[in-house]
Structures are given as structure tokens and as C-alpha cells.
Write a structure and sequence with these properties.
alpha/beta, 122 residues, four-stranded parallel sheet, single chain
Amino acid sequence: MSRTSMRIRIKRVYDAPQRGDGLRVLVDRLWPRGLAKERAKVDLWLKDIAPSSELRSWFGHDPGRWGAFQQKYRHELAGKAEHVQMLRKAAAKRAVTLLFAARTEDQNNAVVLKDVIEEAGR
């Protein structure tokens, strides 16, 4: 499957749901603070695909650790291939939006996960 045939987006779970979001998948280990489940409109919560608690604590969204975080999280994702493949197959059929709670939109686990899913489809 080519990369262009997959429709994977990432967005903050706090942003309003949109019709084009398709399958909305929360990819954080913890439920977002202060967000009601009804408002989040999450179709699937994949806690197990999120970074381990240890990795998440170590990273702490420190920009200086971003490169190492990506490598460590990719290593963790290698052991979760069934989840990655499930998301890849879903994205081949319809839009998939990976939801995250982090304030940093360009340095979070959803960014890495999106890349890994797209790479799995090559």
C-alpha cells in the first residue's frame, strides 16, 4: 500500500471533532485532564500503543530529549506491531485521526506513531 493511499491525521483531543476526522483514536496512556468522554468523541482508546509510563515520564516533553524519545518510542512500538497494522489497515479504508493531549503539536507520541504507521505501509 502506498503512503498516499493512507489518510492519517493527528490532532489534539481538546480540539473540536470534525466530520472529516474519520476514526478518532486516542493514543495516550492516560485520559486527558478535564475532558468529558462525550465531548471527546473518541471511537477507540489504544492505551497500549502509547509510550510506557517510564518513557513518558523521562521525556517530559523536553525538546532536548525529542530525538532520543523518538528512537525509544519506535523501539517500544516494534513490540506492538499488531496495533500498528490495525491502524494501518483502518487508514487504508478511511480517515484515521490520532488524538493526543500534549500541548506540543509537533513533538509528541502521535507524530512518531503516524510516521511508523506510514512506514509500515511502504
